[in-house]
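User: Hey, quick favor. My workstation is busy. Could you predict this chain's structure for me?
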Amino acid sequence: MPPALPGPEIGQRHVAWPQTWRIIASRYPPIDVFERLSVDPRVWEALIALEQRTNPRVRDEIGEIALVPPERRVAGPNASWVMAPFTHINVRGSRFSDGSYGVYYAARDLITAIRETAHHFARFAADSNDPPRRETMRVLCGAVDHVFDDVTSMEASARSAILDKDSYAVSQPFGALRRAHDSDGLVYPSVRHAEGRCIAAFWPNVVGIPIQERHLQYEWDGTRVRRYFDYQLQVWSEL
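Assistant: No problem, here it is.
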């Protein structure tokens, strides 16, 4: 057992959402390596090494598989959607990661996922000095039925610091500490959508494998994402 966890206390919550929503950029092509691998994750390294001898692109597709222990891996149809965030690390970090490990973020409701990801896409576009443009996004829909650490159970000042809208100075070391002490992830209030709820899963095997549900298009006007187009509904919506 790990030593007693220093810092603020946190309770747990059983999260059972029949639908969770995750949105990623469609410019990242679909990958199917984890769909084609053996159902036994313990032999993946050997199989990957063999395939790399004839297909050098496998290394780029598979990412850093060693970052995910065999018992935490998932395989089968659409497994790559879950594995990718953990094997292709966002080195810039995120709310609950300093960039040294991956996190699978998803929301309880589609509009929450849209507002969260539109905000981050806008920050990326602004940092890149992008002119007005549009970006097509892929919507993934899955489920979750697992116990996570519940940020809402924390004392108010600690919770407020972790959910700071403009800074990850507290949330990143907090996430790293929870993960180091065997937490499977966090459930927390969205900071971009009132009443929205999100999960940050620290391992692939604690979330359900999603399906692709629809496509959206975000419109960056040079300042912010003001609206998005839903290809399924064929309508523009304001943010």
